[in-house]
Write a structure and sequence with these properties.
Elements lengths: L5 H10 L1 H6 L8 H12 L1 H15 L3 H10 L1 H4 L1 H18 L4 H15 L5 H22 L6 H17 L9 H15 L4 H16 L6 H11 L2 H7 L6 H17 L34 H9 L1
Length: 301
């Protein structure tokens, strides 16, 4: 929440043209536009990092990690799985749920999930991490706080997408969703080999993006951003406290620098970025299990 200090509030508004427009909108009806402005103008890097952490959180639930480990996708072609997940969600977010591309991506996502027996609670937990983790990240490392309208619009966005995914019983309040999500973690998070396998596969993918000499530092950095219960669920050793404090200090220092930089004049869209899996571009039909790239890979195998 933006503090109710008029001078502080007006300063934040002046430093963010996106927020100035957001504050003129209604999160009950304009939730897609609010999310687009907030994420693609003010917080593209922060939301991308926080959603990566959200995926890690889901691996601490054995029923979720067991399915992911069984498919072998994170082990056999982790980069494609990572890119496909980002792109399916980004197609919906960048173009709108009711756009032609958004509807096609939503159908593709539902087809992928429909191949497996996934409980409503597991669906709901994954959705809860997408709502909650960006907000928690912003509270600690954001260059400005989310406004009430941004928080409400974020929940409304995932409420609607969850409805289109046939997810039931989604709380209509962020605090209520937070309580449910934390209770689900307490009741279900524990170590299993499948947790460790999927976490290792994903972490190895992240490390592959960096030169070998830097990978130990990056690994410790990722560990420092994971909660202790989650490290235990993966069987990972907890990082030194001093290193965790250093990582948090660096992220807070970044947050102090960002307001001094020129504001983004054009949106940063994931759907416009070059993906490692698709250097020549992609179609929505390429995304997910059973896409043309998967078929070519299986024939080569």
């Amino acid at each position: 929440m933006i503090p109710q200090n008029p001078r502080y509030y007006s300063g934040i508004i002046r430093s963010s043209p996106a927020l100035a427009e957001i504050e003129s909108l209604d999160p009950a009806t304009d939730w897609e536009r609010i999310g687009y402005l907030s994420t693609n103008y003010d917080f593209p890097w922060d939301v991308e990092q926080s959603l990566s952490l959200a995926f890690f959180k889901t691996y601490g639930i054995p029923s979720i990690s067991a399915l992911l480990d069984k498919t072998g996708e994170f082990r056999v072609r982790p980069q494609k799985r990572y890119d496909d997940t980002k792109l399916v969600l980004a197609e919906i977010f960048d173009h709108g749920m009711d756009s032609e591309r958004g509807r096609e991506a939503n159908r593709s996502m539902n087809r992928m999930h429909g191949r497996y027996d996934i409980s409503n609670d597991d669906y709901l937990y994954v959705l809860s991490t997408f709502v909650l983790v960006p907000g928690r990240w912003n509270d600690k490392f954001g260059w400005r706080p989310y406004s009430d309208k941004e928080r409400r619009a974020g929940l409304n966005y995932w409420l609607e997408l969850g409805r289109r995914m046939n997810i039931r019983d989604i709380p209509n309040d962020v605090d209520e969703l937070d309580r449910w999500s934390r209770a689900y973690e307490r009741a279900n998070s524990r170590y299993t080999d499948s947790n460790r396998h999927v976490a290792d596969d994903t972490l190895n993918l992240f490390l592959s993006w960096y030169p070998s000499w830097l990978r130990p530092v990056v690994r410790l950095g990722v560990m420092s951003l994971l909660e202790d219960y989650l490290l235990d669920a993966f069987g990972y050793q907890r990082p030194p406290g001093w290193f965790r404090r250093l990582v948090e200090l660096a992220l807070r220092a970044r947050a102090r620098v960002i307001p001094l930089l020129p504001r983004r004049r054009h949106p940063r869209l994931i759907t416009n970025e070059r993906m490692r899996t698709y250097p020549g571009g992609y179609g929505i039909h390429d995304l997910g299990v059973g896409g043309p790239l998967d078929e070519r890979s299986s024939k080569k195998g």
